[in-house]
Amino acid sequence: MTDTKHILEAVRDGSMSVEEAELELRSRPFVDLGFARVDTNRRTRQGASEVIYGASKTPEQSLAIARTLMDNGSECVMITRCPRETYDLIVSEGMEAEFRKEARICIVGRIPKAERRSYICVVSAGTSDMPVAEEAAVTAEVMGCNVRRVFDAGVAGIHRLLSDADSIMGASAIVVAAGMEGALPSVVGGLADVPVIAVPTSVGYGASFEGLTALLAMMNSCASTVSVVNIDNGFGAGYIASMIDRRSIQ
Amino acid sequence: MTDTKHILEAVRDGSMSVEEAELELRSRPFVDLGFARVDTNRRTRQGASEVIYGASKTPEQSLAIARTLMDNGSECVMITRCPRETYDLIVSEGMEAEFRKEARICIVGRIPKAERRSYICVVSAGTSDMPVAEEAAVTAEVMGCNVRRVFDAGVAGIHRLLSDADSIMGASAIVVAAGMEGALPSVVGGLADVPVIAVPTSVGYGASFEGLTALLAMMNSCASTVSVVNIDNGFGAGYIASMIDRRSIQ
Amino acid sequence: MTDTKHILEAVRDGSMSVEEAELELRSRPFVDLGFARVDTNRRTRQGASEVIYGASKTPEQSLAIARTLMDNGSECVMITRCPRETYDLIVSEGMEAEFRKEARICIVGRIPKAERRSYICVVSAGTSDMPVAEEAAVTAEVMGCNVRRVFDAGVAGIHRLLSDADSIMGASAIVVAAGMEGALPSVVGGLADVPVIAVPTSVGYGASFEGLTALLAMMNSCASTVSVVNIDNGFGAGYIASMIDRRSIQ
Amino acid sequence: MTDTKHILEAVRDGSMSVEEAELELRSRPFVDLGFARVDTNRRTRQGASEVIYGASKTPEQSLAIARTLMDNGSECVMITRCPRETYDLIVSEGMEAEFRKEARICIVGRIPKAERRSYICVVSAGTSDMPVAEEAAVTAEVMGCNVRRVFDAGVAGIHRLLSDADSIMGASAIVVAAGMEGALPSVVGGLADVPVIAVPTSVGYGASFEGLTALLAMMNSCASTVSVVNIDNGFGAGYIASMIDRRSIQ
Amino acid sequence: MTDTKHILEAVRDGSMSVEEAELELRSRPFVDLGFARVDTNRRTRQGASEVIYGASKTPEQSLAIARTLMDNGSECVMITRCPRETYDLIVSEGMEAEFRKEARICIVGRIPKAERRSYICVVSAGTSDMPVAEEAAVTAEVMGCNVRRVFDAGVAGIHRLLSDADSIMGASAIVVAAGMEGALPSVVGGLADVPVIAVPTSVGYGASFEGLTALLAMMNSCASTVSVVNIDNGFGAGYIASMIDRRSIQ
Amino acid sequence: MTDTKHILEAVRDGSMSVEEAELELRSRPFVDLGFARVDTNRRTRQGASEVIYGASKTPEQSLAIARTLMDNGSECVMITRCPRETYDLIVSEGMEAEFRKEARICIVGRIPKAERRSYICVVSAGTSDMPVAEEAAVTAEVMGCNVRRVFDAGVAGIHRLLSDADSIMGASAIVVAAGMEGALPSVVGGLADVPVIAVPTSVGYGASFEGLTALLAMMNSCASTVSVVNIDNGFGAGYIASMIDRRSIQ
Amino acid sequence: MTDTKHILEAVRDGSMSVEEAELELRSRPFVDLGFARVDTNRRTRQGASEVIYGASKTPEQSLAIARTLMDNGSECVMITRCPRETYDLIVSEGMEAEFRKEARICIVGRIPKAERRSYICVVSAGTSDMPVAEEAAVTAEVMGCNVRRVFDAGVAGIHRLLSDADSIMGASAIVVAAGMEGALPSVVGGLADVPVIAVPTSVGYGASFEGLTALLAMMNSCASTVSVVNIDNGFGAGYIASMIDRRSIQ
Amino acid sequence: MTDTKHILEAVRDGSMSVEEAELELRSRPFVDLGFARVDTNRRTRQGASEVIYGASKTPEQSLAIARTLMDNGSECVMITRCPRETYDLIVSEGMEAEFRKEARICIVGRIPKAERRSYICVVSAGTSDMPVAEEAAVTAEVMGCNVRRVFDAGVAGIHRLLSDADSIMGASAIVVAAGMEGALPSVVGGLADVPVIAVPTSVGYGASFEGLTALLAMMNSCASTVSVVNIDNGFGAGYIASMIDRRSIQ
Q1: Is H9 in the C-facing interface, judged by CB distances under 8 Å?
Q2: Is the dihedral of CA H117, H118, H121, H122 positive or negative?
Q3: The whole model's pTM is what?
Q4: Strand order of the sheet with strand E76-80?
Q5: pLDDT one-digit tens code per residue, D35-75
Q6: What is the ipTM of this complex?
Q7: How many Cβ atoms are within 10 Å of A193's Cβ, its own excluded?
Q8: Which of A154, D247, F233, H37 would be a feasible disulfide site paired with A125, CB 3.0-4.6 Å?
Q9: CB distance E36–C157 less than 8 Å?
Q10: pLDDT tens-digit profile of H83-100?
Q11: Domains delineated in chain B
C-alpha cells in the first residue's frame, strides 16, 4: 500500500508516465501461469513463503508454481495435502525437496532454522488425530518455529494430559487437534494463558458428522482463549500459531 | 403380562366369563379423566410413582391427576416443570405438598427416606446449568436415593473438578449437566467406573444452538460410560440414575 | 486418586524424594508405545480391561497394545471394529484369541465367566440392526454378564415383541438397537422398569440420514428410562449395560 | 377440463364468439376480491367446499371470502386456525356459524350429515397433541365422515393403545397425531391394513426441534401404510382421510 | 385381535388349556428362520402378501423367506430393491419368478389380475425419476390394481402435464415421484380431488441434498391432498395408493 | 475506477500534490456521520440512489442519511423495512416523502417517471406473500420501471396463473415471491423466456422453516431461468429486475 | 398461448373440428421418444435451443434427443455434463459436434456468432472453480454472447481482482463462481451496477459442506445486485446472464 | 502446577502434614460463594483479571463476585453482557465502576494504561455489527492494549476498507466482526500478515440463520490467517487479540 505513494511520487517527478503508473498498480504483484496467478512478492507482503494447496492441483501445476516461486527468490515453498506423485516429480526435476509423509507436506528448498527459543505446543487427542496435528507441527517448523508435540492426550484420561502440563504452560501458542466431542481445547485452554488454535478433525463416526460436532463444540468453548479453524485444517492452525510465536522476538 | 395368565385361569375356572375377561384385559390398567388416561397400577409395574409433566397441563389437570393417583394408593407424586400456580392450587385444596423452586418440581405427599447408603452424584458445569442439575437431584431424592451435588465445575478450571474427585468416584451413578461445548461428561467419565448420564442444557448462545451442540458433543464422548438424554431433561437423567442406584441393595 | 496420599506419605517418610514423587505422579499410569499411550492400570481404576478401538489402528498397532496390556496383567482384552487381518496377526503371533464375526470383535485371552444370575437383554428391530446388537451383546459377555437376545422385533409387528415380554421384563438392563424411525426403545421402555440404553443404527435410507433420525427420535422418547449412545455404538451400550448389571451382586 | 370441450363446442355452434370463449376460458373460475381470488366453482371441481386458512387473514377478509362462497352456492365453509374474533364477526353479521374451540375451526353453514357407516379413526399420543388431532377430526366431520377418537394412547403405555384396537382395525382410514419421537404411526400401522396419515406435532422440547424429529421419524416408519403431512397440519390429514373414506360408498 | 376372543372361548370350552392358550397367543403369528421372523398369516391380517425388502438381505435369505411364504399359502411375493443375483438364485431353484429391471422388483408367483376398473395414476417429473415411479407402479400392479403412467411431465413444461390431465383426473389415487424442487405434487394436487402420495426422489445435485429439498417442499404443498413418504420410497407410495384403490369396490 | 486516471493526470500536471492525491483517493467517496459512512457519489457509480435499510437504524439515523444524500444531489431516496416512526419524523422535518405501508417502504423525494414501455411482472403465490411482492414492486417503480402485479396465483390452482399468462410472457424480467413449497418460480419460468428472480418468503409453518424450504426448492428449480435471493428480500429482487429492465432501452 | 386463439378461429371457421382442436391443443408441443418427451417448438417459445442435461442420460438417449431437435430445425444443441462417450457416439454417427472438455459441454451443430458488442464477464475465485466457470462461459457463448473471463481472482488477494476491474465494470451481466466462503460475488457486486449471478461451487473441505456454505453466504450478500443459482450450476448462471445480455440490442 | 513442587517440598521438610498438603492441593484455588466458585488466584495463573459473564447472573451475584475478586487483589474486573441494573447496584455500593453502554461492559476498578506502542485493529462490516465490535475493542483496552477502530467497512464498498488499509496493516492482531455473508475477514486477511480473529455476528435475516452463515463462511476463509470465535463473542475475540498483542513486548 505504501507503494502507492512511491508510484505517485514517480509520476509527479516525471520518471513514470500516467499510463505506466496505472499499469504498474494493476499488474505488478503476480505472474500469470495460465492456470494460476502466482504471487511472487507475497513473501515481502505476508512475511512468509507462498503456500501451495496441493490437493486440487496436478503434479505439473504444483511443480510449475513451486519453480516460479523459487526462481523469484523464495528459499522455501511448502506444498500441503501433497500427493506422493507431486513430490516424486519435483525431485525427478532436480529440485531439493523433502516429504513429510504423515503430515502430507512436501517442503521444497530448506526449512529455515528457528532463531527464537520460544516454541509452539501441538496437542492431539487420539491416534487418529495425528495427521492433522502433524500438518500443524510441520507447518510451524517450516515457518521457522520450534515445536513440542503432546499427542494421544484425550480428556477421558485427564492424567495423561496433566503429565505434559509443563510443555503446555510454557508455549507461546498452542494448537489442539481433536475430533469426536472436541473437548480438549477447553481443558488445555484452562491450563495456559496463551492463544489456543483449535482444529476439529473429521475423526469419529455417527453423530460426529465428519468433524462438525467437534467444530461446534470448540466454537462454544468455555475457555476464552480458544479460536477455531476449519475441520482438518492443520496447516491454518500451524500458520496462525507461527504468526503469534514470531512476535516473541520483535 | 403375568396378569394375562391369571385372567386366563379365572376364565378356565369359570369365575370370569369370556366377555368379562376380554373387557378386563383391555380396560383395567387406567382411569380415564377425559383429558388423560391415568395409569393407576403403574407403581407396581414400573416400580415408582407416576410422574406428571406439569408444563403442558393446566393447574386443574395436574391436580386431578395427582389426586387420582394419591386416591389409588400412591404415597408420593412428583410434578415436573411445575408452574407456581399449580402448586398453589394443590395446597389450597388441602393436599400435602412441597415446592422445590429451582428444580421447578412440586412434590405431593412425602418423599420416601433413602434406605441405602449408596448415593448418586450430580455434577454441573456452570451456574446457569443449576436448574437442570437440581431437577435431576430432586428427582433422584423423590425416588428414594441419596444425592451429592458438585456444582460449578467446568472443564476450563479442571482443578475445581478434581477437588471433588472423591464424591465423583464413590457414586453408584453420576448425572452431568452441561451446556456450551458439553465436555464435562467426558472428563467425569474418565474419573469413575459407573454409568454417567449426560444432560445437555440449553445454556449458551450463538453456535450452542440451544443445547444441540452440547447434545452432539456428548453423543461423541470418548468415555465409554456416557449415555445421553434430551436437552434440559434433568428429570430423565435423575430417574435413570435412581434406577441404577436401586440395584445397589438387591 | 487415593494414590496421591500414598505418594505424599512416602515423601514424608523419606522413602521417596520430592523429584521422584513428582515424576511418579505424572508418568506412572501409562506405557508410551510411540503411537499410543497404553493405560496399564486402568483395570484397577475402571473395573474392566482396556478396550482397543480397532477401526483406526493397523493390525500391528492393535497387536502391540493388546500385548502390552496382557503383559501387564490383563486377562482379557477386547478389540472392537476389528478387521479380520488384525485377528489373523494376533493368532499368528501365538496369542489366544477368538473372533466374533458378526459383532466384529476380537477377544484376546479368555472371556470371564458370568458369576451372577442376573442378565442383560439385547433387543433389535430388524435384520440389518443385528451387527450393532451383536456388538453390544458380545461386549456385555466379555464384561462378565449373561445376555439374552431378542432380535427382529420391530414395532410394526408389535406381537413379535410382546411374545418376548418375559425376557424384557426380567433383565437388569436393556440395550435396544434400532434404525429407521427409532421407535423401539420407547415401546420397550414402557414394558420394563430398568434402564434402557438405546443405540441408533445407520440402517435405513433417504430421510433416515444414516441414523440421525433414529438418534433424534430416541432422544425424545416418551419413556423416562431411555438414554442414548452414538449411532452404531453397540460397544458403548453393552459396556454401560454391563456396569449396571454388575451392581446386582454388590 | 371437460369444460374446455363444452366451450369449444359452443364456439363451433356459433353460440359463443372466439373472443368470448377465450375470455371465458381464462376468467371464469374465480371472483377477485382484491386481496384474494375466490374459487367459486371449486366445489364441483374438488368435491368439497373451499377451505379458508384463517391464520393469515384479518377477520374482515375471512368474512368476505366466506360470504362470497356461501353466496355462490356453498352449504358449508370451514375456516381453519380461526381466531375467535373472526368467528365473532361472522356471527355478528348474522351468518350461521359454529366454533370448535379446541380444533380452532369455525364452521359457517351446516355440517353435512354423514351418510356412510364407514368411519375414520383419529389417534393421538398425548394430551398436548389433542388440538391437532381435533383439527383432523372436525375437518373429517365437516367433510361428511364419521369419526372415532382414540386419544392419549402413547407407545410407552402400549396396553392403552391395544385397548382400542377394535376402533383402529375397523376404520376406513386412520389419522395419527404425535410429537416427541413420533413412534405411534408405526405401531398403529402394524395393527391395521388401511392408509395411516401421520401428523407430526410440535409437542416436545429440546431435540424435538418443534416437530422436526417426529416428522423425520414418521418418514422412516417401518410400516408400509404410513404417509406424512406437515407439522401440526391436522386439517390436511383429516382432509386426505375423508377423501379415502368417501370411496367407501362409490 | 378377534382371535383373542376365539382363543378365550376355546379355553372356556376346555378345548384348550391355559398354558396352550398363552403359548398360542404369543408364538403363532410367525416362523423363526434364525435371521428373520416370517409373518405367515400376514396376508389375512394385512390384506396383502408379505413384502421382502431385498436390499439388506443376501440372495439366500430372500429366497428362504420367499419360500416360507409361498409354502404357507401366499400366491405372490414381491422382493423390492432386489439384486439381480437374488432373482437368478430364485429362478435357479425352480420357483416361478419375474424380474422388473427398472423397478428393481422381483415377483415370485403370479401377479393377481386386476378385478376393478378403477386405476391408479403414477406421475413422474423427469427421466431420472422413472425407477422410483416404476417401483410404485409395479407395486400397485402386484397388489392387484390397474395403473396408468404419466412420465416426464415436469412443471417447467406445464403443457406436457396438462396434456395428460384426463388420466390424472380420473384416477382413484395418484402417486407423484419428483426430485429437485419437488413442485409437481402441488400442481397435480390442484387438478384432481383424490389423495396424492408424493415420493421425493434423490434426483438432483447441490442443494437438492439427495432428496431432502424435494421432501421438505412436498411437506409444505399448498394442495391439501398431498401426503409424503420417504425419499425414493416408490414401494410405499404404490402400496398406499393400492390400499385406497381397493376401497373402490367395497 | 477511471477516477484513478484523472487523479494521476492531475498529479502529473502538477495541479494536485502527491499528498492531496493520496488523500483524495482514500477519503472522497463518502461522508462520515459517525454511525455510518454515507456514499454520496454512489448514484453515479451504481446508477441508482442510495438505499437505506431502515430496520436496523433509529428514525434519527435514517433521517440523517436521507438528508445527507438529498443534500448531495439525490432526487429520490428509498428507505426499506421502514418503521412508521421514521416516516413520521422525516415528514415532520419538512421533507417530501411518501409511505407505502404494505411494502414497508418510505420514499423521500419523487419517484422518477418510467420512460420505457417495457415492464416488470411481479407474481406472488398467496395473500401472505403480498408484503414481499409489494416491496419488490415498489422498489422497481422507484428505480423508474413499469410494474404489473399478478398476485394470489399459487400452483395448486394453475388456471389462476394461466389466466395472467399474457402479463407474464410479455415482461422484461419477472419477480416471483412464494413461500411454503416454493414451486411457483418453476412454473412461471416455464412460461417465459426472461430472467426470473425468485424470492422465498417466510410464509408457512412447520417444515417450511421460515422460508428455508422455499429457498432450497427454488435453488433446485428445473427451469433454467430462475435465480434466487434471500428470504423475504423483495427489495433485492425488485432491484435486480430493474437493472435487467433498464437494458431494454440501451 | 396466442396459438389458442388461432386454433379457436380455425374451429369457428370450420377448418378444424372440435375433436381435432382439442387434440391439437394437447399433443402438439412435443415428440415422445419413450424415455423422454422432446420439446420441438421450444426454440420459438423460449428463444433458445433445447438444452440436454447429459449427466442422467445414456449416450444413446442424448444422441436421440439431439437428433430429434436438429431434425426439427434447431441449429445448435448443447449437451451439459456430457460424458466423453456421448460426444464420441455423436461424432461417430456423422453429426457435427465439438467437445469443450473443461466445461464438460458437447456442442452439436454450430455456435451462433455473437452479433452484439456487449459482453458477459465470468469471474472465478480459484483454480478449482474453473470447470464451473467454464460451463457458464461456454453456455453464454452457445447462446450467442461475447464472454470475458477473469479467473483465479479470490478475495484474499484483492489486488488481483482490482487489476481486472475494467472487464468487470463494462459487462452487461456478470457470473461469479466461488466455493469456500463464497465472498467474491459481494466484492464484485460492489464494483459494477449490473446483475451478478452467483454460482456456489462444491470446492472446499470440512465446513464448506460441498458448497452449502458458499451458497448460504451468497444468499446473504450485502451487494443488492446478487442472485444465486444451485451449487455447481454453471449452465444456469450462463443461461440467465445470456438472457440479460440479449436485451442489450432489443 | 509448579506449586505442586512447593507443597511437596513443604511436606518433605515437615512444615506441612500430609493431610494439610492434600487439603491444600484440592481446596486452595477458589472461594465458594454458594452459587459460584470464584477463582481468586487466576490473575497469576492466567495473566489477567477474572471476567464475569453478566448475562446469566443477578446483579447481586455479579456484585458479590466482583467484590470477592477486588478484595483478593484484583485491580480491574470486567463484567460482560452487563445489565444496566448490575452497574447501578455496583456504583450504589460505593465501588468505582464505569459503564460502556454500546459494548455492554461494566468495568470495576481502573483500566490499566497501555504500556506498549503496538495496537489491535478492530474492523466491523456494518452499523449493526458495532456492539460486537465495541465489546472486542473495550475488552482489549481493559486488557491493557491500544485499539484502533475501523467501522462500517463492508466488502461491497471495498474502497471504504482500503481507505483504512494503513490501520489494518500496522496492527499486531486484528479483530473482524461481520454478519450476513461474513466475507470481510477474508479480505482483511489478504491485507495483513498478522492473526485475524473473526467474530460472526447475528446481524442479518432469512438465510443468515442468526449468524450461522457468517460463522461457516469464516471457517472456510481462503485467507490462512483467520480463526473464528462464537457468534457475537466480541469478548473472546478481544481477549485473544490482547494475548497476541502482549507478546509484542516480551
Answers
A1: yes
A2: negative
A3: 0.88
A4: E51-53, E76-80, E105-109, E97-100
A5: 666 766 544 434 455 788 888 889 999 999 999 888 877 88
A6: 0.85
A7: 17
A8: A154
A9: no
A10: 999 999 999 999 999 999
A11: 31-109 (no CATH), 119-246 (3.40.50.1970)
